[in-house]
Amino acid sequence: MSLKKSKIPKDIKNQLFEARKSSHILANLDVSIKNQILYEISTKIKENASLILEENAKDISDAKRLYEKGELSLSLCDRLLLNESKIEQMAIYCENVAELPNPTGNILDATCLDVGLDLYKVTCPIGVILMIFESRPDALIQISALGLKSGNSVILKGGKEASHSNRILVKIIREAFVLKNDFPKNSISLVETRVEVDELVKLSADLDLIIPRGSNQLVQHIQRKSLIPVLGHADGICHVFLDHAADEIKSKSVVLDSKLNYPAVCNSLETLLVHQNYSNKWLAYILLKMQDSGVEIRVCNETKKRLKTYKSLILKNAVNEDWKTEYVDLIISVKSVDSAEEAVMHINHFGSKHTDSIVTENKELAEWFLNSVDSAGVFWNASTRFADGFRYGLGAEVGVSNAKIHARGPVGLEGLITYKYKLYGNGQGVEEYDDGKRQFIHKKINF
Amino acid sequence: MSLKKSKIPKDIKNQLFEARKSSHILANLDVSIKNQILYEISTKIKENASLILEENAKDISDAKRLYEKGELSLSLCDRLLLNESKIEQMAIYCENVAELPNPTGNILDATCLDVGLDLYKVTCPIGVILMIFESRPDALIQISALGLKSGNSVILKGGKEASHSNRILVKIIREAFVLKNDFPKNSISLVETRVEVDELVKLSADLDLIIPRGSNQLVQHIQRKSLIPVLGHADGICHVFLDHAADEIKSKSVVLDSKLNYPAVCNSLETLLVHQNYSNKWLAYILLKMQDSGVEIRVCNETKKRLKTYKSLILKNAVNEDWKTEYVDLIISVKSVDSAEEAVMHINHFGSKHTDSIVTENKELAEWFLNSVDSAGVFWNASTRFADGFRYGLGAEVGVSNAKIHARGPVGLEGLITYKYKLYGNGQGVEEYDDGKRQFIHKKINF
Fold first, then answer.
1. Which residue of B has its CA nearest to A261?
2. Predicted ipTM of the assembly
């Protein structure tokens, strides 16, 4: 297998046209064919493991050079690195996606409009999706597998640091397509530069959805340029609210897990809100635990006052900017509130509609909080870190969306499908219904 | 009741803030309260019928002046006009919406993640919606009723020709809110100028959804300016494809109804695609019927050739522009195609993803067509005019969407809702699952 054969179409317009054509063929493919292709990709990945590692080594050596020049972070280099175990995981991932239930062709609703005139609302692929992701090359396999399973054409834009790895992976995927004669090979294609992405976004009327997974900046850049929906994956400014009726042990467990389990990710805790009547002793105890784990604590004036007798606590002053900051780091901001209402107002104003949790034994208050907080995930007595596709049991995760429509929070395969209305008639027109000669019956059809 | 009291907040930012606050209260309101408010609006509309007519008369007299100057069309004046019957219909509409099932708080999915850790995916309002609509003042009542029922705050922007009518209607709605002490009066508010809309769209991070109902131009203008999803209602370039295996009577019925029933609307037929082996005699017969009804017929070269013996048919030459034109008028374009594949390619390329129909007795081909055509409505042996919320039996229609995600085609109340994940725990963190001390069970909960 020579890399020279792997042609990436240069002409973006043509690439988009081919992706569109492929999407129409995919829309008619039986799920068994899509699954066979997924197993074939898995096989090809395993067969070509050493080739993948060779190409990945080129990216790593380029990245190391950039790191030495100070142009790339070490963590980025780490995320770029593939090894045999990661390659095996990619292969298994494809098999897992093959085993998921078919997300398309499912009837959502069915109505008999009249005798011989039946309306079905049926799930179907969205069409052509542009997926923009960061440097992890294994993300390419995940996204491609989910795209294939859901019957969408996917145009992939990976990080340029991973270009050798991405190219070989797309080449392997396309070689797997050969298994089935009619399988549309442009179902998966690659663009490599930001310029190409900007061109694609300009043609966005010919795309159906853009899913950028990356920084807030990236998501907003795409949103500004795009005419079509963008399923962004950006900030998580998550809150925990400790109500005065909170159980102390639960408070400790929820707060510490939310902050300390993995501070570098979007579903970790950034701002702790504490009811004025919550026990000062327990608050101090929880914050001391955090401090012992290396967390910097920034507090409002009120919190500073109530904790002033706890001399071993090192408390910095929080400023307004803190309430709107996603630290993704060992920093927490703490604010005292007079009421649950104030907590909700704060969350809805400063939060990012990601995930927010209340700790309380008051069931009625909890339910009110879950309804009032305008976030994708609203939790009662549970760590914000549960906001995750795997933990939710979604089977596969497209990403975590901070959009408010179509797909919110951790998004599974259903984020890659839409629906259409299929109407089955016998030559009917609406005229005789307008005339009152016939009446609609609108009877639900069991399915 | 004096109009002077009806204060429209001048400060857009403040208006948006108040709408947002109201939305958080609405999210917790019991459906019975929302329904009582809807009945109260109905009562108030009936009580204030003469006042509404007075205000509407001002709009009409302004509009007539503009019409005389040639600055407004007669059809626009017509649509502006309210009368007692229309006012009664508005009142009944509110009652009908009150009687619809509650769209929020419904469980979509439920999973027990572990003992004492239950995840519910529950429908909820979207938040704050900006609705832009044309001059019909009765649309204001429809949109407001749907917004209230679904628990959203709605900012309304009607046509400026209808400003007196719109103001009095919003005033009446807000007076109905007084029935319930805690009902948030800024759930419904009004903006009146395009400048205000542009300002709102700039603040679009604080809006959740924009629904423009109007021209293609309007929709695209909003889409270009907005950072958030726009549920557009624009062009309908609908097709009927007559396959060679089409039944002749069904062909005639579907084509004539699709074109002639109401040519001025988006779900009427614009381009007829005809298989090369479809009977020329029947094609001529159908087109003659159209011609008799005043339809101008524009055909491709191939169609011209096959119909050349039918001397009474007046056939103009279609140009490329015709295939992408929504005539919404007594004009039809006709194209011969070599195959169903060519028909599908044409529809997916030139169509507007609205509604397209195939006439054939070939069930397998029909199913292939329904899957391949990338439109919200795909019909077999039925008129495109069936694409409509009332005919679909949706109960209420928000509009007809040409978006591909969230809501496609005729959109009912479900277009105004989204979902959130509610997680009910006992103080759990993810740490013990990461450690392998506990395992997720991911068992479906019956609901």
1. B431
2. 0.89
